[in-house]
Specification:
about 300 residues, alpha/beta, 7-stranded mixed sheet, about 35% helix, 3-stranded mixed sheet
């Protein structure tokens, strides 16, 4: 859908963008009337080269072992799941969805101004300095969050249409971790939620949503790939919705929000071990062409749509 009036979109980014995020922004930029005047990145990420070099990695080195030991300190048992993913990448089975791109130099950011900042972070929440908020207010109608983690404060109301962010699951069922919890529980249908952020965790207004069939996904990374691929087109849908004066976003009460799965839950051996086992079995099943029915089925939430 093309926009009748000029629409300026700001982007919050981390050290790099994934393939699916770049594609979503490129699709948005091809819409008539859309510009991306401003990208806000974290200080120290400008000119990041590790993103592109990571894509070409084709063998494990001593440095990988050191990195694994460092990750082990914080992620505990979940580091085994991450290690399995890295091995899969080395042997050539990593999904293009996860390909990393250095932020600067991307075609979708032609004629875009880059601003670096060091926001204040407390208890995992990020609040932006007022000069950044003022710049966003002056030149952006809407902001898309692809970095900086949990965001709160005056930036949420600075752009006319707010700050939009994806949660790769249905916030009415799986808040927090999202896909790891969905895959761990053996669900066959999940969702993707584009929400207009407020000061809650995964509790903002739903501006676009899609149910996603994952019954044939063999690994957790297949689930991520399926969900993130769907999000490529969901961004345009959500931005179109918030610009429509007749559109009413879905506002959820606390009772309507799903269970919150804390990231620390994946640090336990029981949770991580189950995910790792399912990943390995899924790869074997795919390698030898065998399939088994999924364990459980998730109910379709009322009012959801493709």
């Amino acid at each position: 859908m093309s926009f009748d009036d000029q629409l300026s979109v700001g982007v919050l980014v981390g050290p790099y963008l994934y393939e699916w995020q770049v594609d979503a922004l490129e699709r948005l930029r091809t819409e008539n009337g859309v510009t991306i005047p401003l990208v806000v990145g974290e200080t120290g990420t400008k000119g990041e080269n590790d993103a592109e070099s990571w894509n070409e990695k084709n063998r494990l080195r001593v440095g990988d072992l050191r990195q694994f030991l460092e990750v082990l300190k914080t992620e505990k048992a979940w580091s085994l799941v991450l290690a399995e993913r890295n091995v899969a990448k080395v042997i050539g089975t990593e999904k293009e969805t996860f390909r990393r791109h250095t932020v600067e130099g991307l075609e979708c950011f032609d004629d875009t101004e880059f601003v670096q900042c060091s926001p204040e972070t407390n208890d995992g929440w990020t609040e932006f300095p007022e000069d950044i908020v003022a710049r966003i207010r002056d030149c952006c109608d809407v902001v898309v969050r692809f970095g900086f983690g949990l965001v709160r404060g005056s930036i949420l109301t600075a752009p006319r249409y707010g700050v939009l962010s994806f949660h790769p699951a249905d916030i009415r069922r799986f808040r927090g971790m999202g896909p790891p919890a969905v895959f761990h529980d053996g669900r066959t249908v999940t969702g993707s939620t584009l929400q207009r952020l407020d000061d809650s965790i995964d509790g903002g207004e739903i501006v676009a949503y899609a149910d996603i069939d994952i019954a044939d996904c063999d690994t957790l990374w297949d689930v991520f790939d399926r969900v993130l691929s769907r999000q490529r087109g969901l961004l345009i849908e959500g931005i179109t919705n918030v610009r429509d004066p007749d559109f009413e976003p879905t506002r959820l009460t606390d009772d309507e929000l799903g269970e919150f799965y804390y990231r620390k839950q994946r640090h336990g051996l029981a949770f991580s071990g189950r995910v790792l086992f399912k990943n390995v079995v899924g790869r074997i099943r795919r390698r030898f062409g065998t399939k088994s029915p999924s364990e459980t089925t998730i109910e379709q939430p009322s009012g959801s749509s493709e």
